[in-house]
Amino acid sequence: MKPQALPPNVLTHFYAGGARIARFRGIQLESDHMPEEWIGAVNTTFAATGGRGLSHLPDGTLVRDAIASDPEAWLGAEHVARFGDDAALLTKLLDAGERLPVHFHPGRELAERHLGLRHGKTEAWIILEAEPGASVHVGFKRDVDQATVRAWMREQDSAAMLAALHELPVSAGDVIHVPAGTPHSIGEGILLAELQEPTDLSINLEWAGFDLGEDDSHLGLGWDAALSALNRAAFQGRTARALPPEAAPFFRAERVAGGETLDPGFSVLLGLEGDGELAGLPIRRGSAILIPHAAGALALSGAVEALRCRPPEVT
Prior knowledge:
Radius of gyration: 19 Å
Order of helices and strands: EEHEHHHEEHEEHHEEEEEHEEEEEE
Number of strands: 18
């Protein structure tokens, strides 16, 4: 079993973007509202029909089906003992062609209790490109009460919502960890790699001015249940250069370079810079390679830098 180069899997969405993904991946897109590529995806979009979101191998096989047919070869025995045939990872490229609405993602407790899902949506962003002055908003600066949040929503007071959040200027190489429940908004002019739990669960506090409505914004849960998952406590918003230890139960990421040997493990490898080779596959900026556990230890050769995205640490 060998690594395989993944074909593009770019999705249309309610917000603008996609040009940076097209340049990064060396592809053409059909519209200016294709701001997300789901890479190695084994889950669909929320309430999807027809498998929307699922990734394919080069021969057309769904990654989800390939893993289900031989989970230990793809994921490794330790992972399967803990998670079964669940890859427990979604890797995305996200190109913010406009500021995203203020929103948050529920955690595992709400997802299991109300939606029957194993995963919530803790995520992390690794900034690949950012225009000068680009920023993100993450987490409340101070504790906020429920009545205040509901008033912002009722009035769709975008300015007040953004002012209550930490604004973080970003540049290439920055890493932001976003635990489930944390309110946030990604600003315009940013291309990022997003690692997350494999769900598509977003609760929007803001919808006015976007191709959204209030009824689209609470996952069909009603606001009492949806807002129970919002972290209204003060949050320490910050950027870093690597994921913090508390991300390990959800996903892992590491930067690798030519001359290194990758230890065995299921992962998505994204080429960042230069040119190199992995198991006979060329890798350069924009390459997306899916690596099965059974491929074993692999030498990455050439003058290349890449991002290796991996499932949770098995403990």
